[in-house]
Amino acid sequence: MSTNSFRRVAVTGLGIICSIGESLSRFREALFKGTCGIGPVTLFDTRGYIGPLAAQVKIQDLESFFEPKEIKRVSRCDVLGLIATREALLDSGLSLQQCNREKIGVVLGGGAGGMLSWEKYRRTEWYAERKPRPSLLIASAPCTLTDLIATRYGLKGFRSTICTACSSSATSIGYGFDLIRSGTHETVITGGSEALCELTFAGFNALRLVDPEPCRPFDRSRRGLSLGEGAAILVLEDYVRAIDRGATIYAEVLGYAINADAFHMTSPDPEAMGMSRVMAKALEVAEVSVDRIKYLNAHGTATKINDQMETVAIKRTFGEKAARDLAISSTKSMVGHCLGAAGAVEAVATILALYEQVAPPTIHLDEFDPDCDLDYVPNQSRSLEIDCALSNSFAFGGNNTALVFGRGQGKA
Amino acid sequence: MSNIVFTGIGIISSMGVGREAFWMNCRKAKSGIRKITTFDTSTLKSNIAGCVENFDPSNFMSRKAYRRMSPISRMAVAASVEAIKDSQLNLDVMERERIGVILGTSYGSSSHVEDFYVSLLKDGPRGAQPFLFPETVPNAPASHIAMLHGITGPNSTFCQNAISAENAILYAQNLLSQNLVDVVLVGGAEELSGMLYSCYDAVGVLNKIKCRNDDTIQPILGGGLILGEGAGILVMERLDFALERGAKIYGTLEASVITGGTSAIDHYEVNGEQVARAMYAVLEQADVDPSDIDQIAVSANFSGELDRLEYDQLRIIFEAAKRSLEITPLKYLIGDFGGAGAIIAGASLLSLYHQEPLPTVNVEILKGTSQRTIEWNIHPPRETRFSLMTSTTYGGGSAIVFSKHPESD
Questions:
Q1: Which helix (H) or strand (E) holds A351?
Q2: Helical (H) or strand (E) element with A52
Q3: Interface touch A164/B259, C-beta < 8 Å
Q4: Is the pLDDT of residue B277 over 50?
Q5: Distance separating alpha carbons of residues A193 and A139, to the nearest angstrom
Q6: Neighboring chain B residues of A399 at a CB cutoff of 8 Å
């Protein structure tokens, strides 16, 4: 297949719910303002943990979205994902009645899925309080949300759920890009959802990767990450079809790459080879030279090692000069680390940066770290001409993903 | 003809540990369903599954390598070691960035999820065991494969219930056809933990059989799921790459399709529209008629719902073939699990390579009512060109056509 026969891929709809905003417009405002969404957790007891804080979502108006019977059966992760999907589809202006739904795929990234429901079941059983409800188990498979979205909107195309921890939903956007680019699908619903749960909360605490205070990416005194939750859904569409129907084009997906560190389950490769190779490969696939990337949304978890290694990797990929010219931010400083949804939440932030031509800030960045000496857009967003942007996601197990976006033509 | 072929197979299953043992038992339709002995089932309504027995990871890797691995990671890595050896790939001279590892699993290590959470319930936030947590992510097995072999190319894990391994195969195809890689280790894996089994038991979807040690197990047709576990890894590569290195070729990936349906999350499609659509599409893609298909591996799993819908759709699609329809429900022998598709694909490829048909049953058995016992037909070697594999899961369906490669004559 020659390069010319590949279709271009447009982002035409965005939906998001996370701790700093329960809709796209609120998220956009909070993102550029530099709002911190990290605070106390009410979903479960966090006493006794090193880091008791997280970026929890306030879900409102559940009744307008679900039947009372349905509320009992869907997990928190699925609730967040369905809310974001409704917004993304509305935002895209797609009329599903007029679409061939066999050509609409659903490809999501998953994290802990319905773990919170399973924990409720297991905890009840453990303390033998009463017989737990088996229905709590039904929504526990990681692909439940993918199926629920397809069922709710009658989407009969390709179906896939990618589970590579913190890079899942970034990869799902990449796979959606492949499906449209190759011409097999006209539209793909991609993204991901994650709900806070005790398993991941206790896990990151046990590994001592959590900051007792809200996380401080790239700051010298950073002590670890803050967990978060939320969902972000992107509607990807064949670019030409999107133009024909007069859709708003937020951005163009230009390419992506995935790879493996093949080094350690929880630590990044100390040479940062995996991270730099994945960025270089994504740029190669996207046919974008390093000097065209003006904004980079970092993985930026705020662990000592990640931020240092990511800085090394950016310098290696872009070269010292181009790396210094980049505006880099870790939006995890505001929304926390949303694990399975992180890649999608950050893709939305990256796309908004392109669309608004504003680089969002890294908040809580006050103290300079000689190991992190690039421009991380500290504490205040910045207007900037952005032609292309890159978003990084690196996961447990050494699963790396980099996404490259280009400026869309905006409103038709 | 497609230009993607399979050149190596590794299998850890309840029907045998290792490719040869598996194939020998598969040919004889020797069931791997047995009484569960690895965890307590006394309070449950069922106690049978396709459990892997006599699996010693030290036959495949060093103790240091597997010490911290979960059961699923051990099985997946062991299968990868066998598959690479079988393929005769020389990793030392290969560009490791041009090799991918793509797996499918429903849940990953459910035992580590349980053990970690119980350590939290027992000992509180400061007592939760940090070394158990990294294995709770479903991508752990694929990461271990990458680490053990030093493979730094594309690495991903798909969790789509019973079409997880099928999803992995399609993504591997996507990578190979874009020439992003030369070789992919593709497959699926699942471990059966006490936690996972008791959850299925609580939901009430298992075949309610409690057997004693010496019982011959007779599953109730249509009576509910029988779970299983295991791992299958296939070496998948572009034909030109395989030919250049003089590889043994098991078979060709002729065509593959995944479709979505719109059923509820805890039920199969009522009529199987999505899997029928996948089968029609895959036959069209492969440019073959139903009558060209020599054998059909189906995903029937004793659930009743799935078996019946597969029966209905196969009857419609293959009616024109005008013959008594024989099919292979391999999950009747190995149990049902997310990564099972990789083992079923492995069986289909071994059958094409050896030109020895898979064991079959008459399609009528899927109706689940008329027959009590399962009678397997074992066939002598015969020409087998096209093998169809079809899978159905909640809301999704897949169909893949494998073909005999001329080079294997």
A1: helix A342-356
A2: none
A3: no
A4: yes
A5: 13
A6: 139, 142-143, 155-156
User: Could you tell me if B234 and B300 lie in one domain?
Assistant: no
Q: Which of B197, B228, B244 is the last residue of a domain?
A: B244
Over 90: is that where the pLDDT of A128 sits? no
List of chain A residues whose C-beta atoms are within 8 Å of the C-beta of residue B156: 162, 164, 171, 258, 399
CATH number assigned to the domain comprising residue B380: 3.40.47.10
Please count the structural domains in chain A. Answer: 1
pLDDT at A411 over 60: no
Domain span at residue B196 reads: 4-244
Give the three-state DSSP class for A30. helix
Q: What is the pLDDT of residue B408?
A: 59
A364 tagged catalytic: no
Give CA–CA dist B358/B339, Å, rounded: 19
Out of A36, A337, A338, A372, the active site residue is A337
Beta carbons of A7 and A187 less than 8 angstroms apart: no
Query: So what's the pLDDT on residue B145?
Result: 98
Instruction: Report the gap between the CA of A382 and the closest CA in chain B (Å).
Output: 35
Active-site residue flag, A166: yes
Cβ proximity of A188 and A179 under 8 Å: yes
What is A270-329 written as a DSSP string? TT-HHHHHHHHHHHHHHT--GGGEEEEE------HHHHHHHHHHHHHHHHHHHHHH-EEE
Kindly determine whether residue A164 and residue B156, on different chains, have CB atoms separated by under 8 Å. Answer: yes
Of A69-83, B156-170, B260-274, the range with the lowest mean pLDDT is B260-274
CATH number of the domain residue A388 falls in: 3.40.47.10
Give the separation between CA B11 and CA A180, rounded to whole angstroms: 34
pLDDT in tens, B343-390: 999 999 999 999 999 999 999 999 886 667 899 999 999 999 999 999
Output the 3-class SS for B344-361.
Answer: HHHHHHHHHHHCCCCCEE
Q: How many domains does chain B have?
A: 2
Closest residue by Cα to residue A8 from A412, A409, A277 = A409
Question: Other CB atoms closer than 10 Å to residue A70's CB: what's the count?
Answer: 14
pLDDT score of A3? 45
* B271 has a chain A CB within 8 A of its CB: no
Q: Is 0.95 topped by the overall pTM?
A: yes
pLDDT band at B103 (very low <50, low <70, confident <90, very high): very high
Same domain, yes or no, for B98 and B206?
A: yes
Spell out the long-range contacts of B351-354 with Cβ–Cβ below 8 A and sequence spacing 24 or more.
B351/B295, B351/B384, B351/B387, B352/B250, B352/B251, B352/B384, B352/B385, B352/B387, B352/B402, B352/B403, B352/B404, B352/B405, B352/B408, B353/B249, B353/B250, B353/B251, B353/B404, B353/B408, B354/B23, B354/B381
ipTM: 0.97
Nearest CA in chain A to B173: A178
Q: Is the pLDDT of residue A60 over 90?
A: no
Question: Is position A59 within any domain?
Answer: yes
Q: pLDDT, tens digit, for every residue of B207-251? A: 999 998 767 888 999 999 999 999 999 999 999 999 999 999 999
Q: Does the annotation count A185 as an active-site position?
A: no
Q: How far is CA B318 from the centre of its chain?
A: 24
